[in-house]
Amino acid sequence: MAKSKKISTGQIFGCESLLGCIFQSWSPRRRKPSLPEKDHRAKDNLSSKSSTTVTNPKILPRKSTDTSSQPKKSDSQKPQQKPKPDENHPRKSSESARKSSDSARKSISSGSSRTESKRFSLNGVMGNIIVKPQPAVKTDVTQTKSRWEGKPVNHRLDPETLKKMGNEEYCRGRFGQALVFYERAISADPKTPTYWSNKSAALISLGRLLEASDACEEALRLNPTYERAHQRLASLQLRLGEVEKALCHYNEAGKYTETKHIEQVEDVVKCLRRCDEARRSKEWNVALKETLFAISYGADSSPRVYALQTEALLHLQRHEEAYSVYQKGTKRFDIDSFIKIFGLSLTSYLLMVGAQVYIAVGRFEDAVTASRQAARLDPSSEEVNAVARKARAVASARLSGNLLFNASKFEGASVVYTEGLENDPYNALLLCNRAASRFKLDLFEKAIEDCTLALSLQPSYRKARRRRADSYAKVFKSLI
Q1: pLDDT of 123-141, one tens digit each?
Q2: Sorting pLDDT into bands at 50, 70 and 90, what band is 426?
Q3: Do residue 226 and residue 167 come from a single domain?
Q4: Whole-model pTM above 0.85?
Q5: Which keywords describe this protein according to UniProt (predicted)?
Q6: Within 10 A of 119 (CB to CB), how many other CB atoms are there?
Q7: Which residues neighbour 451 within 8 Å (Cβ) at sequence distance 6 or greater?
Q8: 46: helix, strand or coil
Q9: Contact between residue 455 and residue 316 where contact means Cβ atoms under 8 Å apart
Q10: Which of 167, 211, 218, 373 qualifies as a FRET site for 400, CA 20 to 30 Å off?
């Protein structure tokens, strides 16, 4: 006898899709979701099996492996197995696809909290999507935005990595960034001489030679046989004019020392010797020429060479050039660093030359300060003490003369300025001030003479040029 066949609401309305699903959900007979409807030819063979509620419509329930209690079926009677969700199978027929869609909608509409809890399993699987656990973010390691390639750099990078990053920046010409990485490597491992040597290279490229010398010496303290550091320190000492030290380190540099390096040192030694001889004999043109040779041979950052050149220019009455050269040679002047590298005697000589330059350009207070420092470092030097007395004399003359001039005592001011010029006959500032006093005394020709001499010493002295023009105007008016 044929079994009665149940007809679903979707079949009555002729719609197996969304509309049928809606009507079935309204049916009072429906209490819980049923299995998706299978093919008609396989339904009769599977009628003995109990229906199972499926929480995940895409995963089939596990079939029983016990085949003893089930009758054997032929190949034509076996139900067609559905593909698993994570496998690639040919496209299903439109009928089976619609049925699976209806079953999925039914399961979603009647889902309970138990279904939701099973959706995420312990292994992170949601349907056919595997959710990979995200790595935990460490909050104890601070990260900052580094300039290095615009990438975040961890502060806990190992020193070798920091050194490599510094080397890359150095090769690109970014010496400031390279120095930052080398210093961070030193902070992580201060006992490695390579980091100190690389820091020295970056400082040399930045023009900070005294600091570079300190870094090289630290590298050699950690490893006295470090040949690369010996070579680097030797080249530094040559540039600073310390030729004896440079030759000593070149002898320790091994394979890094070339013949041309020794020849450079010998050439600078000869130039410095001739400079000292010219200075003693007061042949300032010869001294100036030899300082230029020494700079061309490699002593391009030597404070001693620049001080000799400055002194020669001062005696040749080229005050503006002397001031410019001195500023270039001592632009990073630090007394403690200079004493450490050059010693007390040379540092005192540099300060004495600086005092002479400041006197020449009218910076009398700075001249007094520099001369006092020089006398403190080398109190037995008669030359240093003479410069100190000269600085005090011209500073006092300008101060006293200005007070008299402001009190309209022009004759007394002129006398005081003249006394100051006896200590320094070629001081442009005192000459210009005396010209102002003589102008007030109607001594226009004398004022013109003082202004002309001041302009020969300092051609850019605008006040002297203006006063000379006023004096010429007065002379011209008196002739009319």
Answers
A1: 443 333 343 444 443 433 3
A2: very high
A3: yes
A4: no
A5: TPR repeat
A6: 12
A7: 431, 432, 435, 464, 465, 467, 468, 471
A8: coil
A9: no
A10: 373
